């Protein structure tokens, strides 16, 4: 079982170099596998879209909160850590053209020594996605093709692609890397996408029978695509302050390979580090 920690995005301090450096270095020192950073390219003030992971329909990140670019943030932290995994959770795939994205992710993975995990999502804020230039209701088909383009370019060979949204011939993207791609989401479509195209699933806000259904859908989609479902990872969420060894064991029994832990939203660095230390001790990491 692996344990990741989400950088506390709601505080606005992930863009403070001293604060986030100390936080990331402590995550590493405590023995957690990776640090996970979120993305919102823009937050549209007064958005009408419904946030699906809170009964209020509103996310906890305010529109005046600093939310740095996830890949640039991870690049900054790569130079200040040694072994810590560097993950997105999630990168909103429709916001990005896959050709320059392939270069950015491969460069980060190469320079960090192979520490990158790219968890992608389709996004829920229609206003944000359309501000970035993608039609909201085409984002699923677009994302399937984006993952295909990433995989092709990461071979480092000269590749051709002729699709619905993107096309090129003889394109070479170096350094050549094969970065793991995990699919985030709470829908059957996300689970099937993970099975067909991904290296794992990070389901959000689901448990019990619905979780088992999504895992089954992922495995079935993998088999239908001629892939081995046993190599696909499952990452489940929990709270830093509430997880312990027993709860982790129950998540592992559900098939989890990784627990992605959400910390308390505090701006007090000492309190944030103490919470991580206590969690690591409960889990036997440090």
Overview of the molecule:
It is a single chain. By secondary structure, the protein is of the alpha/beta class. The chain has a single domain (2-283), classed as Alpha-Beta Barrel (TIM Barrel), CATH 3.20.20. It is 38% helix and 18% strand. The strands form 2 sheets. Strands 1-2-3-5-8-9-10-11 form an 8-stranded parallel barrel, surrounded by 6 helices. The protein has a two-stranded antiparallel ribbon with strand order 6-7. Helix 6 links the parallel strand 8 (181-185) and strand 9 (200-203). Helix 1 packs parallel to helix 9 and helix 3 packs across helix 5. It is globular. The two termini are 15 Å apart. The model has no long low-confidence stretch (mean pLDDT 97).
Features:
286 residues, alpha/beta, TIM Barrel, 8-stranded parallel beta barrel, 9 helices, globular
What is the gyration radius calculated from CA atoms? 18 Å
Number of distinct beta strands: 11
Spatial strand arrangement across the major sheet: 1-2-3-5-8-9-10-11
Arithmetic mean pLDDT: 97
Secondary structure category: alpha/beta
CA-CA gap between termini: 15 Å
Q: What's the shape? A: globular
Return the string of H and E elements. EHEHEEHEHHEEEHEHEHEH
| Oligomerization | single chain
CATH topology: TIM Barrel
- Compute the number of structural domains: 1
Uncertain regions: pLDDT < 50 for 5+ in a row? none
What percent strand? 15-25%
Say which CATH homologous superfamily is assigned: Luciferase-like domain
How many distinct helices?
A: 9
Brief account:
By secondary structure, the chain is an alpha/beta fold. Helix content is 38%, strand content 18%.
């Amino acid at each position: 079982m692996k344990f990741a920690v989400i950088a506390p995005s709601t505080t606005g301090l992930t863009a403070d170099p001293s604060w986030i450096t100390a936080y990331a270095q402590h995550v590493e020192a405590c023995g957690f596998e990776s640090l996970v950073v979120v993305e919102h390219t823009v937050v549209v003030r007064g958005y009408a879209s419904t946030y699906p992971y809170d009964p209020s329909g509103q996310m906890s990140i305010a529109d005046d909160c600093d939310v740095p670019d996830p890949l640039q943030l991870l690049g900054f932290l790569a130079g200040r850590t040694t072994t810590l995994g560097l993950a997105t959770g999630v990168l909103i795939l429709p916001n990005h053209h896959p050709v320059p994205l392939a270069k950015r992710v491969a460069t980060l993975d190469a320079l960090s020594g192979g520490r990158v995990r790219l968890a992608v999502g389709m996004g829920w804020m229609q206003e944000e996605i359309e501000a970035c230039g993608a039609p909201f209701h085409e984002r699923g088909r677009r994302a399937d093709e984006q993952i295909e383009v990433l995989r092709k370019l990461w071979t480092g060979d000269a590749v051709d692609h002729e699709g619905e949204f993107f096309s090129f011939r003889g394109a070479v993207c170096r350094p050549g890397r094969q970065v793991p791609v995990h699919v985030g989401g709470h829908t059957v479509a996300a689970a099937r996408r993970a099975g067909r195209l991904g290296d794992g699933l990070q389901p959000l806000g689901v448990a019990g029978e619905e979780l088992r259904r999504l895992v089954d859908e992922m495995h079935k989609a993998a088999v239908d695509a001629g892939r081995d479902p046993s190599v696909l990872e499952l990452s489940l969420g929990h709270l830093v302050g509430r997880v312990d060894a027993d709860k982790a064991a129950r998540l592992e029994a559900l098939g989890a390979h990784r627990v992605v832990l959400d910390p308390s939203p505090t701006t007090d660095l000492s309190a944030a580090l103490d919470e991580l230390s206590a969690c690591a001790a409960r889990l036997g990491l440090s």
